[in-house]
Description:
With 297 residues, the chain is mainly alpha-helical. Helix content is 59%, strand content 4%.
Amino acid sequence: MLAEIERFVNWVRRRSPNAHTWRDYRCDLNFFLQSVGDLPPCAITFRDIDQFISEQSEKGFKPTTINRRLASIAAFYAFLMPEDEELACPVFPRRHHLREPERLPRPVPESELRTFFEVIEDARDLAIFTLMLRCGLRIGEAAHLQLSDLYLEEDFPRLVVQGKGSRQRPVYLSPQAVRVLRAYLAVRPAATSEFVFLSYQLKGLSTHAIHMRLVHYRKLAGLSLTCHRLRHSFANDLLNADVPVTSIQKLLGHRWIETTQTYVQANDKQVQADYYAACQKMDGWSVQQNWTQQVTP
């Protein structure tokens, strides 16, 4: 099966050479290979998948991680099946999918944002994290941004970013984002690389390098946050500004509106208003007073 995995990974890499998807597939499938051994794909059964899930759970991997690896296995078989009509995918969604905890997006409190950005002195890093906060860029989108993707001279300055699934979308720049981006470009070293954000070797930054810069600054600030939580804050700010959810979906680059709806669930103004209106009506009834009356002999 090792040879088939290499063919699949190389195919994914050719389809999206600028993405890191192929690395994720290779990592996930190598875990599977370690579990079942180098057997022919046709020899794998649903019971091998059962065993793989059990092993992954015993090692402490979360349901989200295990489900992603199962999706990688299913994608691997989907690649192979056109070559062999008798080959069947051993992953059965109803049998193997693990229930994942539902977690609502968590924006970064404004006080923590202020503390975080106060410790950033490097113009490049300030531009990177400002684009995440004010434009909703993912870490990979910031890393892959190229000079040809910048449209700063237009009436409404914007970027064109490469999102998930190699889908491009326009990203509009707030005045603050334009200022910090221009400030960085003014001191950006001359280089042959077309990447906007350069390493000290004058090459494009990796997502790992950007993450490590975040770790550095959050330690200085004494905070705990992630790049993706900056993106959550962007969506939350749009929601508070009464931007329609369909517009937020497009600005974030979500393929499905249900993904964007989670931000509405996390910050539903109508639910808040209904609850506190009900509280006002219930003010005359005191839990403490009634409880005291019940327990007093």
